[in-house]
Amino acid sequence: MSGTARHQSLNTPLLQINNLSKAYQGNRQVFADINFEVKAHEVICLLGASGCGKSSLLKALAGLHPVNGGEILFKGKPLHKPDASIGLVFQAPCLLPWLNVHQNTAFPLTLHRESKISQAEIQTQTDTVLQWVGLRDSADVYPDQLSGGMAQRVALARALVKSPDILLMDEPFSALDAITRLNMQQLLLKLIAHRRNAVLLVTHDIDEALILGDRIILMGDTPGRIVREWQITMPQPRAKHLHELIETRMAILEELSEVAGEHLLPNGAVV
Ligand SMILES: Nc1ncnc2c1ncn2[C@@H]1O[C@H](COP(=O)(O)OP(=O)(O)O)[C@@H](O)[C@H]1O
Ligand SMILES: [Mg+2]
């Protein structure tokens, strides 16, 4: 590769979303003219009222749903189907009840036999990610014996097992209690700091976005579109210094109250 070509490839954003639009059947436009980029190692939080199209957008970016207009470039190439370098975590852990923690985590590695990954490699990669999420000692446990937080840690380990460049996360912590949610946010920050994944995380919680995001993107609805974005430059850890971001929080709340209207709760969460 020439020096210039290498320079260009290093500067290519991980994900480029250009004029993306989608309509479900019946021609109802769910989102339109979405433009943004995710750079390598960047953490972006996507905020918006329920129904504005956040999950639809994330599924499109995962290559799970077709779009009607625009394009998605992943590492500079058009993305039309799921890619092993894009990890996914949803609000529900969606574990397979007949597989234990180790088997659930290893599952993506066992799907494509043509990749010829050895049993020893599967074992090593699975052990490594279970160690990261603190579940190495629970490898033999089945999903019905896990707490909500543990199950979501398995879902996170499963998303990480193929060492993705980016994690797409759809309200991954919103079904958890407040303490578990804080613990999961800190675990995610630890993972990001050490494994250097980029993250695009949908949340309806402004504080979660402020704790995690390098950038916060606000979506409005009818159809879903990007309204505004904020760059958060305060270094990590932020959880104990959130009061220093009060002005940004107020600005986000104000903008949200305009786009979310009656959907807005007093604490800044949006339903
Ligand atoms: N598979 C689908 N088919 C048709 N309409 C859908 C489908 N999924 C979502 N929608 C509609 O698209 C809109 C946006 O939904 P969604 O992307 O789930 O929003 P959000 O995640 O922001 O709450 C909603 O009106 C929803 O009813
Ligand atoms: Mg959603």
From TrEMBL:
Residues 15-246 form the ABC transporter domain. PROSITE patterns: ABC_TRANSPORTER_1, ABC_TRANSPORTER_2. Keywords: ATP-binding, Nucleotide-binding, Transport. Transmembrane segments: none annotated. The keyword Transport applies. InterPro entries: AAA+_ATPase (IPR003593), ABC_transporter-like_ATP-bd (IPR003439), ABC_transporter-like_CS (IPR017871), ABC_transporter_ATP-bind (IPR050166), P-loop_NTPase (IPR027417). It holds the Pfam family ABC_tran. The keyword Nucleotide-binding applies. GO terms for molecular function: ATP binding. Belongs to the ABC transporter superfamily. This is ABC transporter ATP-binding protein. It comes from Candidatus Methylobacter oryzae. The lineage of its organism: Bacteria, Pseudomonadati, Pseudomonadota, Gammaproteobacteria, Methylococcales.
